Every structure is written in C-alpha cells, then in structure tokens.
Amino acid sequence: ANRDFNLPTPTAAGERCKVTLSAGDATYVLIVKANSVELTRIFITNESLEYVSTGTGAGDWVISQDGRKSSVGSANRNTTQSITTTTITKVSLNNSVANVGDVVDVVTNNRINIRRTGLYSVSALTAIAFTLDDQETLQCLIYINGVINTYSASWVSAGVADRVIVATMSTVLSLTAGDYVELWIYHTEGASQNTNTTIYPALSLFEIL
Predict the structure, then answer these.
(1) CB atoms within 10 A of CB 198
(2) C-beta contacts of 75-80 below 8 A and 24+ residues apart
(3) CA 9 – CA 72 distance, rounded (Å)
(4) Which residues pair with 194 in a beta bridge?
(5) How confident is the prediction for the chain on average, in pLDDT?
(6) CA pair distance 49, 53, nearest whole angstrom
(7) Is there a contact between 165 and 193 (Cβ–Cβ < 8 Å)?
(8) Residue 93 and residue 31: Cα distance in Å, rounded?
(9) What pLDDT score was predicted for residue 130?
C-alpha cells in the first residue's frame, strides 16, 4: 500500500532531512508529509528530496534540494480502430512509447494515469484513414476522469475534396493524483472510418516539476 513518511519535528532551524527512494513501485507511492500534511509523493527509482527546517514547529520544513523525476507517458494506437461517424469515441491506446513512472496503461484502461498532483503538459493527435470532403471535420478531444476537458478541430472548406487532415492540440493542465487522461476522437465523414496506421492517434503527457 501507499506509505507515509512524516518529517520529524525539528529541534532548531537549519536542520536537514533527506528522503531517497531506492526502488520505485508501479502501483504504490511514498507520501512525504510535514505535520501530517502531504507535501509531495515519490515513486520513481532514485527520486530524492532534501528539506531544511526554518524553525522548531512540526511543519517548519522547506525543500532545499528537489531530486524528483518527471513522470512521462506517451502512447498511441498503431492498429486500426473503427470510429463511427458523428460519435465521440475513445481511442483504445495499445502501444506504449514512453513510460517513466509507470503512468501508461495500454492493457486495461487505455489511458495515462496521474500519480502525483501538479502541472502537466498534455498533447494529443488524432488521424483517421480517409480523405475529408466538403465541410467535413475531425476533432481531437482530451478527457479527464471520463469528462471532456479540451479539444481542437480540423475541417475542410466548402467545395474542397480529398484532403488528408489531422487534428492536434497541446495544453497545460493542473491535475491531481488519481486523475486519468484519455484521448477521444470525432469525425463527420458520413460513414465509419478506421484510425490511421501511418499517422497514429497519440496521447502524451509530461510532468512539469
């Protein structure tokens, strides 16, 4: 299970306490606390944090050396998935490209999990295997905890035919430990289409420390 590490109550200002994680875990984390209040979490091999006391109170600790590592997740769909027209559909990510901190799940839930509260750079791309026609659209949607958060759209102008279109987006989100991020796709081609197997639909996430 998750474990708490409570920083000791300092006896003077200037004391130091260093926490190092020798071996990371794919499921559980070490929760670093001061005065029983969570400061952060570490879960990647060789992550470390050093704190210095500013007084003699149980919560009188500030970070002096941040040795955390950014969790990174990148996954794509590298085989065909049928997307029904005018139906928002979750992309079943099936291929892990980068997975620092064991945040990528392409086996059970097809998503990227958040294991530490903070800021994250999130980017996504959608593409389907057809040429868009007159006024048809393709959308790239990011969902947080099963709810739409943000999206982008590409479309073909009136009177234009046979255009290969991708929809991409990039954003910075404040996310909480336990959140999860998914990629969804939408198009108005008029008939079901497969995801592109040359330009893979993809979702990537980088923790900003």
Answers:
(1) 7
(2) 75/104, 75/106, 75/110, 75/112, 75/202, 75/203, 75/204, 76/200, 76/201, 76/202, 76/203, 77/195, 77/200, 77/201, 77/202, 78/197, 78/200, 79/197, 80/129, 80/194, 80/195, 80/197
(3) 34
(4) 82
(5) 93
(6) 13
(7) no
(8) 30
(9) 72
User: Burial level of 9, CB count in 10 A (0-12/13-18/19+)?
Assistant: middle
Cα–Cα distance measured from residue 117 to residue 121, given in angstroms and rounded to the nearest whole number:
13
User: Which one-letter amino acid corresponds to residue 168?
Assistant: T
**What is the CB neighbour count within 10 angstroms for residue 69?**
18
State yes or no: pLDDT of 52 exceeds 70. yes
Confidence of residue 128 (pLDDT cuts 50, 70, 90): confident
φ, ψ of residue 107 in degrees (nearest 5): -105, -50
CB contact at 8 A, 173 and 209: no
Residue with tokens 């909480």, as numbered in its chain:
176
d(CA 189, CA 136): 6
**Neighbour-count burial of 204, counting CB atoms closer than 10 A to its CB (0-12 exposed, 13-18 middle, 19+ buried):** buried
The tokens for 195 are 């995801």
Q: Look at residues 10, 12, 7, 42 and name the one whose alpha carbon lies nearest to residue 24.
A: 42
CA nearest 200: which of 149, 124, 105? 124
Answer yes or no: are the C-beta atoms of 203 and 98 closer than 8 Å: no
Determine the pLDDT at residue 201. 96
